[in-house]
Specification:
207 residues; mainly alpha; 6 helices; 4 strands; 11% strand
Length: 207
């Protein structure tokens, strides 16, 4: 490392590109927001654990229901307003304009001019893993409660599916864009597949 000293500031300059690669990898693998990452998983995992163990811990259905709903509500607020913005640079919300019309807004943080992202790959994996896995577990709970005729638990399970499914849908919209973008992506993909098949057939006939 060469160090350029001046009266104003001190700047580190890398001699080799390998140093830059190592620093980039460490930044990608580093969890920059440990508190946000913890609470991103804490509330939703706690709600699942309480649901599985509530009959063993207490015989009061009301206490279990209130605890699970509180955990789900805290998770919905934290994921929607805090962890999504910090961990992956995404956010979504609803706003009402002057005419009284409701609009859903889905935003993604723009990449800086240098092409670097403020979120790390480790945080991104934690965020999407928790965001996708937990709603799937609640869907399994919903079918289990339905087929086992546990009607009183069905409302709690549906609440888990709705709250966590809403965050999942919102962040997927932030990630891939609007429905028009989804349609254009699907059209482009099908077009590329058709073109590849056509070229392959032409190569086979030519050979």
């Amino acid at each position: 490392m060469l160090r350029q000293d001046s009266s104003d500031d001190i700047e580190d300059v890398s001699l080799f590109d390998a140093d830059d690669d190592v620093s980039r990898r460490s930044k990608k693998s580093k969890i920059r927001h440990p508190v946000a990452s913890f609470f991103h998983l804490f509330f939703r995992v706690s709600a699942i654990v309480v649901y599985l163990l509530c009959e063993l811990l207490t015989s009061s259905f009301i206490a279990c229901m209130v605890t699970i709903i509180l955990l789900l509500s805290c998770d919905f607020w934290a994921v929607k307003n805090v962890t999504g913005r910090l961990m992956v640079g995404l956010r979504w919300w609803n706003q009402v304009d002057d005419d009284g019309r409701s609009h859903w807004v889905f935003e993604a943080r723009k990449v800086s001019a240098q092409g670097s992202k403020t979120s790390s790959e480790a945080e991104s994996r934690i965020f999407w893993l928790g965001l996708i896995t937990c709603p799937m577990i609640w869907v399994i709970f919903a079918f289990s409660a339905l087929f086992s005729f546990k009607v009183k638990w069905l409302a709690v399970v549906v609440m888990g599916v709705v709250l966590q499914g809403a965050n999942l849908y919102g962040y997927i919209r932030c990630k891939v864009g609007s429905r028009k973008n989804l349609r254009s992506m699907a059209t482009n993909y099908l077009g590329k597949q058709f073109l590849r098949q056509t070229v392959a057939k032409e190569d086979q006939t030519a050979s």
